[in-house]
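Workshop exercise sheet. Pairs work together: one partner reads the sequence aloud, the other fills in the structure field after running the prediction. Swap roles for the next sheet.
Pair: D.N. / O.F.
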Amino acid sequence: MYHTRHKGTHYEAGYKWGNLLFQHGNIISNQHTFVITEERKEFAKLCVPIYQKYYPEILEEIKGIADGQRDSYEDLCVFLLSMYCFEFTNHCTCFAFKNNEQIILGRNSDFLVSLEKLYMNCIYKLNDVYAFNGNTTAFVQIEDGINEHGLAIGLTFVYPKIRKAGFNAGMLGRYLLEKCTITDEALQKLREIPIASQQTLTIADENGEIVVVECNSERMEVIYPNEDGNFVATANNFNSEEMKEYRNPQIDDWKSDERYKVAFRTLTENRNNFSFNLAKDILSGKYGFMCQYDRKADADTVWSVIYELKNKKIFRVEGNPSRKMFKEDKRFKL
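Structure field:
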């Protein structure tokens, strides 16, 4: 897992990182995952004005990366703005719970073993937005993280049955971390901005407000904890009755329903015993299938993270949590 730090303006941060890669002979557009098609070009053209209206800074960062790479800004926009909107191979599990002592958001990121050396942990401290510590299988976009105000967010991706010009999943995570301080503020932002892809967002703040948001370009449903549960859970599918019509049962979602049921059942059965160790054991697969993939099939949990909001701590495994230990990341002060 690469560890990067970014500061200054969005453009300066982008240029510095793009140029650093260039100086080491790493050209983003030469990677086999860099896919540009005519369909994606047309889709990205429709998305650009939306980012110009709601999040122009992120376009400046992409421009900085392109300039640092001595490469095409337009192609980089196509690659990044269309991501998660056509197909995906990311599979994740996320949950959040609270009691009198702790507020925890936990997430496993399941992805391709062949790319695991490219995944990133990023600390962003940019001008005029909130600082955050986050993780991603891509770049610019963020899949889980926590910002300086103790707002934590985790994404799970849902196969793109429908799409429309707007923010994709990874951009939503990044935007909310940079712009919001509490869960209610994040919900308000989500109601305001156009959404392109299908995803869930697990959101928790240091006040103990926890939700799962299931959303796409047509609809947004907010799932709150039930009265006695004080937890939420999700994987790579929609579970609310209102969103089930957008599921895609034909695709391989890496046992998404099973992972969701394991997390939900375990949290239900242990609702009076929430703890850091419980979160760690769920993510590590001790209560049922969660991360027990066959690496020979190019699939594995490539990182696992626990954000402990009340105590302002971050714990991460850079690899599969059933084989490696969680370690506290003390570099980012909340």
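Discussion prompt: The chain is about 30% helix and 25% strand. What would you look at next?
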